[in-house]
UniProtKB/TrEMBL annotation:
Residues 121-214 form the Acyl-CoA oxidase/dehydrogenase middle domain. The keyword Flavoprotein applies. Residues 6-117 form the Acyl-CoA dehydrogenase/oxidase N-terminal domain. Its cofactor is FAD. This is Acyl-CoA dehydrogenase family protein. Keywords: FAD, Flavoprotein, Oxidoreductase. Residues 226-372 form the Acyl-CoA dehydrogenase/oxidase C-terminal domain. Belongs to the acyl-CoA dehydrogenase family. InterPro entries: Acyl-CoA_DH_CS (IPR006089), Acyl-CoA_Oxase/DH_mid-dom (IPR006091), Acyl-CoA_Oxase/DH_mid-dom_sf (IPR046373), AcylCo_DH-like_C (IPR036250), AcylCo_DH/oxidase_C (IPR009075), AcylCoA_DH/ox_N (IPR013786), AcylCoA_DH/ox_N_sf (IPR037069), AcylCoA_DH/oxidase_NM_dom_sf (IPR009100).
Length: 389
C-alpha cells in the first residue's frame, strides 16, 4: 500500500491549490448571494481543469475519479459555491453527453464545457419526488420526428446559467424506474422556462424549471429506458466527488480554526494553550483523516468506476464529518464564528449540503446495510472480498 500522492497527482493539484488559496479565497464572499462564480470558472478553464470528465479527444483531461476528487477538494477548502459549480461540470451530466449523445452534440458541447462557456444542468428532482425516482412524472412522447417533453423539475443547480439541460424523463409514460430515460434540452427551446429561484444557505441558487411541450430532435433522446441503471457507474463516481467537497470544506475550516486558536488570546493566553481546545482540534483532525482514508480508498480502487459500497460508505462518513468539523471550527471562533467576517461560517453552511444531494445519507445507509447482511456481505476472506485487506 502507498499512502502518498504521486508526483503527477501533486503536480496536477498544485496550480489549483495556488489559485484557490489566492484568488478564490479573496473572492469567496462574492458568491454568497447566488451570484454564479463565472470569474472562478474562467480561471479554472485557463488552467485546463474544467474538462476533468471530458474525454481528451474533445479537449478535456479525461481524469480518473481520484484526480477529479483531489481537484474538487482543493477548491472546496476555500469556496463551496465554486466547488459546486465545478461539480456540475465533472458530474453525471457531462458523462451522459460524453457517453450517450450523438457526435454532433458531443463535438459542439464538450469543448464548450472545457472552456467554461457551456454550463450543464442536471434535472432529476421533481416537486413531489426526489429520492423516490420511480414516481417521476416528467414525460417525453413521440410526435412525428420530435420528442415532446412536459414536466416540472425543482432544486436544480445552475439552471439560470445552463446552456444545456440533461433531463431525466419518463418515456412514453412507461411506469417505474425502468421507464425513465434521458433527454437533452437546450436553453432557448420554446417551452423551457426557469420558473422559480430558491436561495440556499450554502450561497448558491437552485431553481424550478418547467418544460411545456418542449420539442427536441430525435437525436436528443440519448437514453430510452432504464436510465438510472445505465448510469449507475456515473452516479457512483458522483458519490465520490460530492464527499470530496465535504472533505475540502472540513479541511478548510480546520485550517481556519488552527490559525485562529493560535492568534486569539483570552485570560492572557492564546486559546491554543487550553487543553479543552487542543482536544477539540485532535478530534477534528482524526475525523478528517478517517474520512480521507475512506474516500481515497473508494477513489483509488475505482476501476475505472468506484465500488458502490465503498463510495456510499465514504460519502456518508465524509458528509457527516464535515458537518461536525465545520461546526467545531465555528465554535472555536466564538461569537465571531457566527458572523460573515470569518470564512468558517460559509464553510459550515456549505457542509450542510453533502448529506442531502447525490444520494441522501438515509438511502445510502440502506444500501450499505443491505450489502452487509446480503449474499455479498463479509465472508471468511476478509471485508466484503474487496481485496483491500
Ligand atoms: C444544494 C443542492 C443542490 C441540488 N442540485 C440538484 C440538481 O442539480 N438536480 C437535481 O435534480 N436535484 C438537485 N438537488 C435536489 C436533491 O437531489 C434532492 O433534494 C435529493 O435527491 C432528496 O430529494 P428530496 O429533497 O425530494 O427529499 P425526499 O426524497 O422527500 O426525502 C426527505 C427525507 O426523507 C428521507 N428518505 C427518503 N426515502 C427514505 C427511506 N426509504 N428511508 C428513510 N429515509 C428516507 C431522505 O433521505 C430525506 O432525509 C439539489 C439539492 C441541494 C440541497
Amino acid at each position: 500500500m502507498e499512502f502518498r500522492l504521486t508526483e503527477e497527482q501533486r503536480a496536477l493539484i498544485a496550480p489549483v491549490r495556488r489559485l484557490a488559496q489566492t484568488a478564490f479565497r479573496e473572492r469567496a464572499r462574492r458568491w454568497m448571494d447566488g451570484t454564479f462564480p463565472w470569474e472562478n470558472l474562467r480561471d479554472l478553464a485557463r488552467l485546463g481543469v474544467l474538462g476533468m470528465s471530458v474525454p481528451e479527444e474533445y479537449g478535456g483531461l479525461g481524469l480518473p475519479v481520484f484526480e477529479t476528487a483531489l481537484i474538487l477538494e482543493e477548491i472546496a477548502k476555500v469556496c463551496y459555491p465554486t466547488a459546486m459549480a465545478v461539480l456540475g461540470e465533472a458530474g453525471v451530466q457531462t458523462r451522459v453527453i460524453a457517453r450517450y449523445a450523438p457526435e454532433s452534440i458531443r463535438a459542439r458541447i464538450l469543448p464548450a464545457v472545457c472552456a467554461g462557456e457551456c454550463i450543464l444542468a442536471i434535472c432529476m428532482t421533481e416537486p413531489h419526488a426526489g429520492t423516490d425516482v420511480a414516481s417521476y412524472r416528467t414525460n417525453a412522447v413521440r410526435r412525428g420526428d420530435r420528442w415532446v417533453v412536459n414536466g416540472t423539475k425543482t432544486l436544480i443547480s445552475r439552471a439560470a446559467e445552463a446552456g444545456m439541460f440533461v433531463v431525466f424523463t419518463r418515456i412514453e409514460g412507461r411506469p417505474g424506474r425502468e421507464g425513465i430515460g434521458c433527454v437533452l434540452i437546450e436553453r432557448g427551446t420554446p417551452g423551457l422556462e426557469v420558473t422559480g429561484t430558491f436561495h440556499t444557505m450554502g450561497g448558491e441558487n437552485l431553481h424550478e424549471v418547467q418544460f411545456r411541450d418542449c420539442a427536441v430532435p430525435e437525436e436528443n433522446l440519448v437514453i430510452r429506458e432504464d436510465g438510472f441503471r445505465r448510469l449507475l457507474s456515473a452516479f457512483n463516481t458522483q458519490r465520490c466527488l460530492n464527499p470530496a467537497i465535504s472533505l475540502g470544506l472540513a479541511e478548510g475550516a480546520f485550517d481556519e480554526a488552527l490559525r485562529y486558536v493560535r492568534e486569539r488570546t483570552v485570560f492572557g493566553h492564546p486559546i491554543a494553550d487550553f487543553q479543552g481546545v487542543r482536544w477539540k482540534l485532535a478530534d477534528m483532525f482524526k475525523d478528517i483523516e478517517a474520512a480521507r482514508g475512506l474516500l481515497y480508498r473508494a477513489c483509488a480502487t475505482a476501476n475505472p468506476f468506484p465500488d458502490p459500497f465503498l463510495a456510499a460508505t465514504a460519502k456518508v462518513f465524509c458528509n457527516e464529518m464535515a458537518i461536525r468539523v465545520t461546526s467545531e471550527a465555528v465554535q472555536l471562533h466564538g461569537g465571531f464564528g457566527f458572523t460573515d467576517e470569518y470564512p468558517v461560517s460559509r464553510l459550515y453552511r456549505g457542509a450542510r449540503y453533502g448529506s442531502l444531494g447525490g444520494g441522501a445519507s438515509e438511502t445510502l445507509r440502506d444500501l450499505i446495510g443491505k450489502r452487509l447482511v446480503g449474499p455479498d456481505g463479509p465472508g471468511p476472506d476478509g471485508i466484503l472480498g474487496l481485496g483491500c485487506f
